[in-house]
Specification:
Shape: globular
Helix content: over 70%
Number of strands: 2
Radius of gyration: 31 Å
Largest sheet: 2 strands, antiparallel
Distance between the termini: 54 Å
Structural class: mainly alpha
């Protein structure tokens, strides 16, 4: 029995694959005669079955946790008397404490065992993903600090749970961010089932936190009711409602909470994606060819028109956003501000769609091999891109039905209709461009660097012949300095200082000229296909950034224009927007990461 257990745990190093030169039938008959070949095949098959069983069990655990939490959240929404928000907080606090216990055990126990982390996935946890975890995690911590301060000021009419829950949340965010920053690339080789269950528990907890953030709008409703209460007090109707004291710090807590609220939902979704990749990498053995593959680094080369057009779109978008925020938050929103907002989108979205279509055509024209290696990160990127786009596409189709059924000839309605159709087309074309680019092999950066080094040196040497002459003349001045009187020495010293400053300015100009020539050389060295792909990718990155900023910081015309809200009813449309809008925001942010990958590999 001990030998059988050992054979199941250790990989079979003596197994050899069938030679490619032998005929298929003869080699199969030849190898099946040996007991070692049959034994190794059975061991590998049992390992695969054990891996699938562990993934199935941990997936069922996460599914049950998510269903239990969803039942609590639904009960709170439909019957807030029997199940209160405090009950949901208690359930989530228990889950977070369990996750903290497992993360601590992983950091101090599992990862420190011998041969625990033999392989690390180079594609998992790229720097932009881990940086997003730290950035949004920091904003989420600040959000909870504001919530604690707001509840502390109103402690006389609030429960102590509203202070304890954000405190546990801060500890959970800090521990999880540290864990994901240092161990997101791990392919753990010990305690497979326990690690899978811990990762799935963390995924389920983050999903429930995201659902709570999407469905819970109590503090926003409190702030609106307090504003109405202040108006009643001005009118002379004084009531005993629990209101925030009229102090500066209370207003800071309120405004800060509303401003930072969207970042918490983004943090939960990013953590779920990183944890899922770690779950797929449990027990994974990466081949030497896959492990030694070096990804090219980000360099701002080969782009001129993409940054210019993208920066123009960002600047105009910020101006439109500021005007919209000022006008839409007034008591009676101006109709013209909605026309301006949708007109900006109607101009920008076709440009993005055309750029994505051109990029897809260039990908088809390129003779570049596809990346066929097993890569959980790439598979997850595709799933997230397609899944997150469904939020925006669903809202667009609801808007199209509402407009066609009412009055599509109205100016604002026709703009909203065009916006919805163009948004669907832009999401689809951009997804095709990103997914096609992610599944292609990166360009041979090493050969390019060697070629660029030789040509760059030759160009700089041929274009800058006067540098050595200036240095030689400076040396001649030092040699020809006459040893005369002190006054003459001082005058000569002043001339020398002036010459040195002049030479330093010349050197600075020459360095700027070197950098410019090097950039021009790198741009002209690239083929037109690679230049076009980089220009398109950079332009789409900047466009997706501004399309992420506008809804994240409060521009929600889909709810504020009143058309869909009147057609579907307040409750139904509020639920649709609360479900689709966070997914749309996450889609823009995730698209930026995918487009950066396409830019790097182009």
């Amino acid at each position: 029995m001990s030998s059988n257990k050992a054979s199941r745990q250790k990989p079979c190093h003596h197994c050899k694959s069938r030679p490619a030169s032998d005929p298929p039938g003869a080699s199969m008959v030849h190898y099946e005669k040996f007991w070692l070949y049959r034994h190794c095949s059975s061991v590998q098959q049992r390992d695969r079955q054990a891996q699938k069983a562990g993934q199935l069990f941990s997936g069922l655990l996460a599914m049950n946790v998510v269903f239990l939490g969803s039942a609590f959240l639904s009960s709170m929404i439909f019957n807030h008397v029997a199940i209160t928000l405090a009950d949901v907080w208690i359930l989530l606090s228990i889950l977070k404490v369990l996750c903290l216990c497992w993360i601590t055990y992983y950091l101090l126990g599992t990862s420190r065992q011998p041969h625990a982390v033999l392989y690390r996935d180079s594609h998992a946890g790229p720097i932009w993903v881990r940086g997003s975890v730290l950035l949004f995690g920091s904003f989420s911590i600040l959000l909870n600090v504001f919530q604690i301060g707001y509840s502390a000021l109103l402690i006389q009419c609030k429960s102590k749970v509203e202070i304890v829950f954000p405190s546990i949340e801060i500890i959970f965010i800090c521990t999880q961010a540290f864990f994901l920053w240092h161990h997101s690339k791990d392919c753990i080789q010990v305690q497979h089932n326990f690690t899978r269950c811990g990762l799935m528990l963390a995924i389920a907890t983050n999903l429930l936190l995201w659902l709570l953030a999407v469905t819970n709008d109590t503090i926003h409703m409190e702030i609106e009711s307090q504003l109405r209460e202040v108006e009643r007090r001005f009118e002379g109707n004084d009531t005993t409602l629990c209101t925030c004291p009229n102090t500066t710090i209370c207003k800071v807590f309120q405004k800060g909470y509303i401003l930072l609220y969207p970042f918490n939902t983004e943090y939960c979704l990013i953590c779920c994606s990183v944890l899922y990749v770690m779950w797929k990498n449990v027990g994974r053995r990466i081949s030497h060819h896959h492990a030694s593959h070096i990804k090219p680094k980000f360099r701002l080369q080969g782009v001129v028109f993409g940054p210019l057009l993208g920066a123009t779109a960002v600047i105009i978008g910020i101006c439109v956003f500021m005007v919209y925020q000022v006008q839409a938050t007034s008591s009676v929103p101006n109709r013209q501000v909605f026309v301006m907002y949708y007109s900006y989108y109607i101009v920008l979205l076709p440009l993005m769609s055309v750029a994505a279509v051109i990029g897809t055509i260039i990908h088809a024209l390129e003779k570049k091999e596809l990346d066929t290696l097993k890569n959980p990160t790439r598979s997850l990127d595709v799933i997230l891109l397609m899944g997150a786009a469904l939020g925006q596409i669903a809202m667009s189709y609801f808007s199209i039905v509402a407009i066609v059924a009412t009055d599509p000839r109205d100016l604002l309605n026709s703009l909203i209709l065009s916006y919805s159709v163009l948004l669907i087309f832009q999401n689809i074309t951009q997804n095709v461009f990103i997914i096609d680019g992610l599944h292609r092999q990166p360009f041979a950066a090493a050969a390019e660097a060697r070629h660029m080094g030789h040509t760059g040196q030759h160009t700089v040497a041929s274009e800058l012949p006067g540098e050595e002459d200036a240095t030689a003349s400076n040396k001649q001045e030092h040699v020809q300095m006459p040893p005369g009187k002190e006054e003459e020495m001082k005058e000569e010293q002043n001339h020398e200082d002036y010459d040195q400053r002049r030479v330093s300015m010349l050197e600075l100009g020459q360095e700027i000229r070197k950098v410019s020539l090097s950039y021009i050389q790198s741009y002209s060295h690239l083929s037109w296909k690679r230049r076009a792909l980089r220009e398109i990718s950079f332009f789409l990155v900047l466009c997706n950034i501004i399309l992420w900023i506008m809804p994240t910081f409060g521009a929600h015309p889909v709810f504020e224009n009143g058309l869909e809200k009147t057609f579907y009813g307040y409750s139904t449309w509020f639920a649709i927007v609360n479900f689709g809008l966070p997914l749309a925001v996450f889609y823009r942010m995730h698209s930026v990461g995918g487009l950066l990958e396409v830019y790097i590999t182009a």
